[in-house]
Amino acid sequence: MFRAGATIWRSLAVVAVIGVASPALGHHSFAMFDTGTQVTLAGVVTAFEWTNPHAYIEMDVPDGRGVKHWTIELGSTSILMRGGWKFNTLKRGDKVTAVVNPLRSGEPGSLLSRITLPDGRVLGNGGPPPATSTPPADTTKKP
Amino acid sequence: MSTTRTTGAALILTTGLVLLLETLSRGQSPARPGFDGAWAPFTGGRGANAALAPPPAGPLVLKAEYAKRYQAQRAADAEATKRGEPPPSAAVSCIPYGMPRMMSVASYPVEILQTPGQVTIITEAFSEVRRVYLNQPQLPIDDVPPGYYGHSVGRWENDTLIIDTVGIKESVPGYQNMPHSSQMRITERIRLVAPDVLHDQLTIEDPVVLEKPVTYTLAYRKLADYKMVEFVCENNREYIDEQGKVRLRLGGK
Fold this sequence. Notes:
With 143 residues, chain A is mainly beta. Helices cover 7% and strands 35% of the residues of chain A. Chain A starts with 6 loop residues before the first helix and ends in a 19-residue tail after the last strand. Chain B has 253 residues and is an alpha+beta fold. Chain B is built from two helices and eleven strands; from the N terminus they run αβαββββββββββ. Chain B is globular.
């Protein structure tokens, strides 16, 4: 049973960071997540939902007293694909380590910052805007 | 023999003229090269040519009776965001943006398609679709069923596509979340400012809400060989609770 409060964080690595870049997700404000705090979750994926407006990772995380279930929100599938994600990047049973921004409410929900996949690759929460046809400094024609 | 040839030629000529007149009467005009395809929002920066970035927006001036409430709402939203409580919005509930907000949703591309008599704009975020009917008269506002995209007519003025849109439902969020009335009119002037940069200058008029029209410009960069990604809002875990706060529905095992 989940209890809100400071104790939940004791067994987790909580690292305050400065100047975390907001993911360019666009669906809504991310104010419900504490983007000034990072929590490291090492555990097992129980579901990977490749959906819009957001993809989700559900995972079980051992916390020293048992197993806590966490929900991790990702960007939309379009933005994740730009960052190297595929619909089958994760599957149930995968062991991963995710660095997340937790919900301010204290509930076990979060926003992905980055994740280390079973094969050692590290992915973030999406990528930059899609590559354009020419370098950004193109000055071939005046407006 | 000669009479037969003359008759045949006259028939071909007449058929050609009929087809040409039919085409013109349908409001068809030749597609402009360079507009078709996917375009990503472009705001300049990162060493980009500043001249291709969108110019600054004009001032948003609401009539006094709307300005006070609008400013108060903006301040309340900013405060709520600071407290970690994102302001509830239609987007949280996965309701599409509609015009004009759909034209600039984060870094999501838009796709422009030209077919005879019509320009179609499809956005990646929420898969919204606008249909712009070329060379047709605009309908009176009161004849357009209020909706998210309204009724759009367009015409080419040299290299610029001018689009006139009316009939946007009052509940559809406005530019900068401004309130708007059923009398809102959006005029867009879309043109290439470089072979791979498109500008859409939008002017919003609303005789009920605005003291004067507001004009702003959106810029886009051409995407090479981009395939638009589907976006169906099938798994929206965010919701607005009884207190009006945005919450995240958490999953189980």
